[in-house]
Input
Amino acid sequence: MLETARSCLRLIDPRHRTRWFGLAGLAVVSSGLEILGALMVYSMLSLVAAEGLDLPLPVAIVDRLGDPDDNRVLVTVALAMAVFFVLRAAFQALVGYLHARLAATTGANLAKRLTAGYLALPYAFHLRRNSSTSIRNVQAATAQVVNGGLAPLINVFAATVVTAGLLVVMVVISPLGTALAVVVVGSAMLVLLRLIQPRLKWYGQTAHQMSQQMLQAIQQALQGLRDIKLLGREKPFTARFGEGVDEFSRMAYLRATLGQLPRLVMETALLVFILLFFAVSAALGQASGQVVSVLGMFAYVGLRVQPSLTAVVSGLNELRYASAAVDDVLADLELVASVELPDTAASPRPLRSNIELRRVSFRYDGAAEDALRDVDLVLDAGTMVGICGATGSGKSTLMDVITGLLPPTDGQVLVDGVPLEDDRRGWQRNLGVVSQSVFLVDDTIRRNIALGVPDDELDEEQLHEAVQLAQLEDVLAALPDGLETTVGEGGVRLSGGQRQRVAIARALYRQADVLLLDEGTSALDNLTEARLMQALHAVRAGRTVLVVAHRLSTVEACDRVLLVEGGRVRADGGYDELLERDAAFRRLALRQELTTPSAEPG
Output
């Protein structure tokens, strides 16, 4: 539990950590006001009981006011106490506000740091991790860290100071009674902690796991809704989500049940103590007036200590419950601590001579074999290169290595003789990439083409040129809102071909020197693809174009064609040249003639 507390403090940045320590200082002041309030209550009780005052501070104050037997002194003390308690309540409300605000801003800061870190991590990291884990950590785990870690930590600290201070006061007033209270109440709370904390840790770990299962299940169900409905598989996906939510709910109500126990045990222990104290006092023959004033003081202190002790126990329980979330968030924050978001202001890195791959190999994490093997390749600037091959041959991996998304396991990628990794962001700023799996945000076509560019910085002339070249004009003409049409989540309101044309327009809008189409025309019908390729040829002057295609007709007009097989470049040459001299390329062409794949219209 101490390790969890230390981890909570390590999670927050220095600026917020300073504020939390400042809040702890305010909590000490608030605790001091609680202790002062207890002294004032004891003074009033002693005056009312006419037993005299035992504590030096109240005696000095009351003596200055006049004769303790004078009712005007009682009135003055009562009014002073009323003003004090109003001011104390106002101060505690202020501390509560600062506490809530700091908790909210700290949670937001953690979520932003995690999100920035996840986006800065290498692409390969996200290939091996389910996105629901990262989403859970950003959305739920950061809130759990703050509300179940940092906030209870401050509550435990403040409550401990209050309890310790009030105990000191009570030791001065009644050493025997205080010792009895510590034995009765302390024993009860220690036993309670020993019994419930292991369970709470397990509840927290299980709830943390179930929150990810729930998120993953609903993500998959909504993303695959079309296929799920066609296959009639709604029930299995609903059941998987139901398993997670049922177990999460069970952990929640078990935690809530245990959360009530500290208050119930505390109240019972205090009542038992008061009865025992009264019995012991009677057995010792103490004066009834003194017993009444001390019991009154214990009753007041009990009212103040009960929430404090409950807060201590509940806070410790919350820390135990939140330990799984704290561990996960801390691990990811440490993981992303060494990475920074790439410089968005980096200047585009133009391609002047060539792209060279020197004995490049790449293996995905956990894979038994390399996806690319000892690839030696030089791609000259200003050429149009087609890349073809069977599914799984390594074409897309080759493109990801060239773009810098995947660093080679072995070998090196050079741009104009300079290692790509020396200016990865500058190189990527000079690329226009179209993938077979098109990414669209739930926004207008205009904003999807200029993805991430603020509206006031969007170049309309450049945008319309990209629309024209991408053969998107007829699509926009058929839509009532044209460029302002909202595409829906993932572009669900557009056909596959329309989505790819939007992606092509996005790549062209960048006016990049290097265009990469990774199956970027696979969803287009033959006529639209032919028009697009003609448009690409028209604007390719000064540009380097790499085209990955499963249809050989797409690469027929390329200056050079690469045949990739088993992670190697098996053949390299002009289209007609490969048809003549390479049997594997001829077989691929023959298969495509016999089975012409269909493409989605538009």
User: Anything to note?
Assistant: The radius of gyration is 36 Å. Residues 2-336 form a domain with the ABC transporter transmembrane region fold fold (CATH 1.20.1560.10).
